[in-house]
Design goal:
Layout: E1 4-11, E2 16-27, E3 32-43, E4 52-58, E5 61-67, E6 74-86, E7 93-101, E8 105-107, E9 110-112, E10 115-123, E11 131-133, E12 137-138, E13 143-148, E14 155-162, E15 165-173, E16 177-180, E17 195-206, E18 209-221, E19 232-238, E20 249-250, E21 255-261, E22 271-278, E23 281-283, E24 287-289, E25 297-307, E26 312-322, E27 328-337, E28 349-357, E29 368-375, E30 382-383, E31 394-396, E32 407-414, E33 419-426, E34 433-435, E35 442-444, E36 454-456, E37 468-470, E38 473-476, E39 483-485, E40 488-490, E41 502-506, E42 509-511, E43 524-527, E44 530-533, H1 536-544, E45 548-554, E46 557-562, E47 566-579, E48 583-585, E49 588-590, E50 594-597, E51 603-614, E52 619-623, E53 631-638, E54 645-657
Parallel strand pairs: 12-18, 20-26, 35-36
Antiparallel strand pairs: 1-2, 2-3, 3-6, 4-5, 4-7, 7-10, 8-9, 11-13, 13-16, 14-15, 14-17, 17-18, 19-21, 21-24, 22-23, 22-25, 25-26, 27-28, 28-31, 29-30, 29-32, 32-33, 34-35, 37-38, 39-40, 41-42, 41-43, 43-44, 45-46, 46-47, 47-54, 48-49, 49-53, 50-53, 51-54, 52-53
C-alpha cells in the first residue's frame, strides 16, 4: 500500500521517457481518495514539437490533458490530472493507471507516434469501523468492554443481543473502556444452561456519519447464586399402631411421610428431579413414605431438587424416635403360702414374685399386669384380680388353692401394642405319702391326684436299683433299655427311645404317641436307657434338658425363650424405596447396611440366617457380620445393574441367648 508513487515508459533507448508521479488524498467520511497525477516528459536528446493533446486513465476513467511545445532537453510538465476514487466498504482500494503522450516526432529517421506507461497501485486503506472486545462476563456483575478505534476522533455506539433479548449499552461514546453490567433477567434466555452466547455490535461514527460496524460473539454466565428453591420440606407421622394422641414416633411401630412442597426453578429454569434420603430410605419423587422406623434416636432426612440447569437446592428435617421394645419378664417364682405370704407347703394361697421391664415411650405407654391360675387338669383360667409390681412379692388365691391339686399360674403383661405371658406351676401340699381320697391312687412327696396312678413329687428324685416289672414280664433293670413293639413295652431289639424321647401314658398304658392323650397325663421318659417318670419341670431339667418358658410376638417378630437361656426369634422385614444404586461393586448394586431391631436384648453375640431380597430383581441378602445384641444387620445385593429404588422382603431368623 502507498499514498504516492510514480511509473514510466520510454522510447529510443530511454532518451525520451514518459513519467507519471501520483499522490493520494483521503476523505475518511466519504470513504474516497482523490488521486492527483502529474505527467512529465524527460528527454536528454533534442526535440522540437508543438503542443499536443494526450490522455490518462485512472481506475477506468480516461481524461485528456494538453501539453505545450517542447524545443529543449530536460524535464517538461505535460499536464496535471485529478480523479476521485471510491474505496471498498472496508476502506481498501486497488486501482489501475495508464498514460499515453502523443509525441508524433521523427527521431534519427524513425517516426514515433506516442510514448505510454501503466501501473497497478494499492492505495492506503481508509480507516473504517473500530475493533471491540469483551471477556466472558457474569450476569449481574460489571464487565469492561474495550474499543480499539481506527481514528481517535471516532465515537461509538454499543448494542447487544442475547437470545430474544437486545438493548443498547452506550451511544456515541468517546470512551475506549466502557463499563457494562448484564442484567440478571438475561438468565431467562438460557433456562437449560448455566451460560449462553450472544452478539456485541460496535457502530463507529465520524461525527454523525456511520463509518462501519463490527460484531463479536460474547459469553454470559448465570451466576452461581441463581439456584432452585424448596418452599418447605415436612415430616408427617404415620402412626400405624401408635395411638395418634401420643404425638410421637415410636421405634418399630411408626413410619414417616416426607414431602417437598413448592419447589421452583430460578430465572427461567424448571425443576427436573427430586430426591429424598435418610435413615436407610430413599426415593426419587417429591414425597416418600418410609417403612417402620427400626431404630430409636434422631433421624435426619435430606430433600434435594435439581433444575434444568443442573443446579440443586437442599433442605433437611429431623425427627426424634422414642425407643420401644415389648414388655419382658426377667424372672418369676410362685409357691404355696399362707394369707400373710409366708411360704407353707400346706398353704392355700400363692405367693408370687415377678420381675419385668417395659418401654415407657416418654410416659405415653403403660403396662397392665394380670394374674391367673387354674388346676393343672383344668382348661379354663381364673382371674386372680391381682396386679403386681416388678420386684415386689404379692399374695393371691383367696384361700382357694386346694392342697389336693397342682396349680398352673400365669402372669401377663399388656402394653399398647402386645401381650406377653409366662406360666409357672405350684404343686400340691408336700406330704410323705398320700392315698387318693375315694379312689385308687398313691403319691410320694405330694398329694395323690390321679386315679389308678403312682405319682412322685417333682421335688423328689426316683432311684430304681432293681428290675422294673410291667405286667408279667421283666422288661429291664437298672441301665437296661426298654423298647416298644406295637405300642407295648418289650425287650425287643427295636430302640424307639433315647435320653430325650418320651413314652406317654394312654389310658394308663405306655405308648409311643406324640402327645399326652389320656390317662395320668404324665409323660414317661427313657433316660440313658432307664425308664424315668417325673413332673414336667424335672422332665425338662433331668431328661429333655430344656423347655420353653415364654413365647410372644413384637412387631415383625415371633420369639421363644428357653429355660436354659437359649432364645430365638424370626420374622419378615419389608420396605419400599430402598436405594440400591448408591453402592456399586463389579456391576452389582447393593444397599446401605440395614439394621432391624430385635424384640429383646440378647446376651453375647447371636447368629442370624437371612433369605429373600428385592421383589422385582434377581438378588440376595448378605449379613454384615453376625447380629449385635440388639439388631440384625444385612445388605441387599441386586444383580441388575439398572436397579435404583427397590422394594425388599427379607426373612430373618436369629438364635442366641437371652440370659
Amino acid at each position: 500500500m502507498a499514498s504516492s508513487g510514480s511509473f514510466s515508459g520510454s522510447i529510443v533507448s530511454g532518451h525520451y521517457q514518459l513519467r507519471v508521479d501520483w499522490s493520494q488524498a483521503q476523505n475518511v467520511s466519504a470513504n474516497t481518495s482523490t488521486i492527483t497525477a502529474k505527467i512529465y516528459l524527460v528527454n536528454d536528446w533534442s526535440l522540437n514539437i508543438y503542443g499536443r493533446t494526450s490522455s490518462i486513465t485512472i481506475n477506468g476513467t480516461s481524461q485528456n490533458y494538453s501539453s505545450d511545445s517542447i524545443s529543449t532537453t530536460g524535464t517538461h510538465l505535460l499536464g496535471t490530472v485529478t480523479q476521485t476514487v471510491a474505496h471498498d466498504s472496508d476502506g481498501s482500494k486497488s486501482i489501475a493507471m495508464s498514460c499515453v503522450f502523443n509525441i508524433q516526432a521523427t527521431i534519427s529517421g524513425t517516426y514515433y507516434s506516442s510514448i505510454s506507461c501503466s501501473a497497478n497501485v494499492t492505495l492506503d486503506t481508509i480507516p473504517r469501523a473500530s475493533s471491540v472486545s469483551m471477556p466472558t462476563a457474569t450476569m449481574g456483575s460489571e464487565v469492561t468492554i474495550s474499543i480499539d478505534p481506527a481514528v481517535d476522533m471516532f465515537t461509538h455506539t454499543l448494542t447487544y443481543s442475547f437470545g430474544s433479548a437486545s438493548g443498547t449499552i452506550t451511544t456515541k461514546t468517546s470512551l475506549l473502556a466502557v463499563k457494562w453490567t448484564p442484567a440478571l433477567t438475561l438468565a431467562n434466555q438460557v433456562p437449560n444452561s448455566t451460560s449462553g452466547t450472544g452478539t456485541l455490535t460496535c457502530y463507529t461514527y465520524s461525527g454523525n456519519t456511520l463509518i462501519g460496524t463490527k460484531s463479536i460473539t460474547i459469553t454470559l454466565k448465570v451466576p452461581t447464586s441463581v439456584v432452585p428453591t424448596i418452599g418447605s420440606f415436612t415430616a408427617t407421622r404415620v402412626d400405624n399402631d401408635v395411638p395418634s394422641s401420643w404425638g410421637i414416633y415410636v421405634q418399630n411401630k411408626s413410619a414417616v411421610t416426607l414431602t417437598i412442597s413448592n419447589a421452583a426453578g430460578a430465572r427461567g429454569s424448571t425443576i427436573k428431579s427430586y430426591s429424598i434420603s435418610g435413615g436407610s430410605y430413599s426415593g426419587s419423587s417429591s414425597s416418600l413414605t418410609t417403612g417402620v422406623l427400626v431404630s430409636s434416636g434422631t433421624y435426619t432426612f435430606t430433600a434435594k431438587v435439581t433444575d434444568s440447569r443442573g443446579r440443586t437446592a437442599t433442605k433437611t428435617v429431623s425427627i426424634s424416635v422414642v425407643a420401644y421394645s415389648p414388655p419382658s419378664f426377667s424372672g418369676y417364682s410362685s409357691y404355696r403360702s399362707n394369707s400373710s405370704g409366708t411360704a407353707s407347703d400346706s398353704g392355700t394361697y400363692i405367693r408370687g414374685l415377678v420381675n419385668y421391664t417395659y418401654a415407657s415411650c416418654s410416659s405415653k405407654n403403660s403396662v397392665t399386669r394380670a394374674t391367673y391360675y387354674k388346676r393343672s387338669s383344668a382348661t379354663s383360667w381364673t382371674n386372680a384380680s391381682k396386679s403386681f409390681t416388678s420386684g415386689t412379692a404379692f399374695t393371691f388365691g383367696g384361700g382357694n388353692i386346694s392342697t389336693e391339686y397342682t396349680y398352673d399360674v400365669k402372669y401377663t403383661l399388656t402394653d399398647a401394642f402386645t401381650t406377653v405371658s409366662v406360666t409357672d406351676t405350684v404343686s400340691t401340699a408336700a406330704v410323705l405319702m398320700d392315698f387318693l381320697s375315694g379312689g385308687k391312687g398313691v403319691a410320694i412327696g405330694k398329694v395323690a391326684e390321679t386315679q389308678n396312678c403312682f405319682e412322685v413329687s417333682s421335688d423328689w428324685t426316683t432311684k430304681l436299683n432293681g428290675p422294673v416289672y410291667l405286667g408279667t414280664s421283666t422288661l429291664g433293670a437298672q441301665n437296661k433299655p426298654i423298647y416298644l413293639s406295637n405300642g407295648l413295652p418289650t425287650a425287643s431289639s427295636v430302640d424307639i427311645g433315647s435320653a430325650t424321647k418320651p413314652i406317654y401314658m394312654y389310658q394308663g398304658t405306655l405308648t409311643a404317641s406324640t402327645s399326652t392323650v389320656g390317662g395320668a397325663g404324665t409323660p414317661v421318659y427313657l433316660k440313658a436307657g432307664v425308664l424315668t417318670a417325673c413332673t414336667p419341670s424335672s422332665i425338662v431339667t433331668s431328661v429333655v434338658g430344656d423347655y420353653v418358658t415364654s413365647v410372644g410376638t413384637s412387631g415383625i417378630w415371633t420369639y421363644r425363650k428357653w429355660n436354659s437361656g437359649a432364645a430365638d426369634c424370626w420374622g419378615v422385614y419389608s420396605a419400599s424405596g430402598v436405594n440400591i444404586a448408591k453402592n456399586n461393586y463389579s456391576g452389582f448394586r447393593y444397599s446401605d447396611c440395614i439394621g432391624v431391631n430385635l424384640p429383646f436384648t440378647f446376651v453375647g453375640s447371636p447368629s442370624g440366617v437371612y433369605s429373600g431380597g428385592c421383589t422385582n430383581y434377581i438378588s440376595f441378602v448378605t449379613p454384615t457380620g453376625q447380629p449385635t445384641t440388639t439388631q440384625a444387620k444385612f445388605w441387599v445385593v441386586c444383580l441388575d445393574a439398572g436397579a435404583t429404588s427397590v422394594s425388599i422382603t427379607v426373612g430373618i431368623h436369629v438364635m442366641g441367648k437371652w440370659k
